[in-house]
Design brief:
Elements lengths: L1 E6 L5 H10 L5 E2 L6 E2 L2 E9 L16 E3 L7 H8 L5 E9 L4 E5 L10 E9 L4 E5 L2 E3 L6 E4 L5 E5 L5 E9 L2 H8 L3 E4 L6 H13 L2 H19 L5
Antiparallel strand pairs: 1-11, 1-14, 2-4, 3-7, 4-5, 4-6, 6-13, 7-12, 8-11, 8-13, 9-10, 9-12
Helix pairs in contact: 4-5
């Protein structure tokens, strides 16, 4: 399971910074106040139904994602979207203002292995941002692109004096996106535990001692070795 990965996707963050600064935007407070303290705001560019007030990507009964009126202000975002060769769902700016904290939480089912991926494009940030995925601190710099497994526990603190703004794009996983993520040069995997039932199955297959059972046992043994060795991490 991929925990997070830095992706080689071109992003003109300087243009986005300029567009975000010059446009008159109607930011909406994030709805789930239980999960944060301070100010956390959302500017929706693509949402269920196309309303800029729809800031939650998975509203029940609205599966059609459409551009909001604000998308027209951001040519750099539209250019970025055109370079993503996968189905795009929600597109939002998330502004975690100075001093705000997002408490540890999970976003259920939002992971590569579940068929949906959340991409983060930092637009404005500062060195005092502390982003953790499963207690592992990750440094996300302006102009980069990161896939973050939101199905895992994560939390963020803005301990700086400036706001942190990320462009966040939720995508449907296809072969193109899967390849982009898995080919990352900076990727972290979640170590798996060896299922004891797998060990018992290997023993049973070896006991049968047939060509087919020995072949299956060998394949499972290789999987056990990989799991126990752990996957490469950044």
């Amino acid at each position: 399971m991929v925990r997070y990965a830095k992706l080689q996707l071109a992003f003109d963050f300087k243009a986005t910074q300029a567009e975000l600064t010059s446009a008159r935007n109607e930011w909406q407070p994030h709805l789930n106040t239980y999960h944060y303290s301070g100010s956390w705001k959302v500017l929706s560019l693509r949402s269920p139904g196309g309303s800029h007030k729809n800031i939650i990507p998975d509203l029940i009964g609205q599966s059609d994602f459409l551009d909001t009126a604000y998308m027209g202000h951001f040519a750099s975002v539209k250019k970025l979207m055109a370079s993503l060769h996968c189905p795009i769902m929600a597109v939002r700016f998330l502004n975690l203002q100075a001093g705000a904290i997002i408490k540890e939480h999970t976003d259920a089912e939002l992971a590569l292995e579940k068929g949906e991926a959340r991409l983060h494009f930092p637009v404005f940030t500062n060195p005092q941002i502390e982003f953790y995925c499963e207690k592992d601190r990750i440094f996300l710099n302006e102009g980069e692109c990161w896939y973050l497994n939101a199905n895992l526990p994560h939390n963020v603190s803005n301990n700086g004096d400036t706001d942190r703004v990320h462009l966040v794009i939720d995508c449907k996983v296809n072969d193109w996106l899967k390849a982009i993520i898995e080919s990352s040069g900076e990727i972290a995997y979640k170590k798996e535990d060896v299922d004891e039932n797998m060990i018992k199955l290997i023993e049973e297959l070896r006991y049968q001692n047939t060509e087919t059972s020995n072949k299956l046992a060998a394949e499972l043994e290789e999987k056990v070795k990989t799991i126990r060795a752990g996957n490469p991490a950044v």
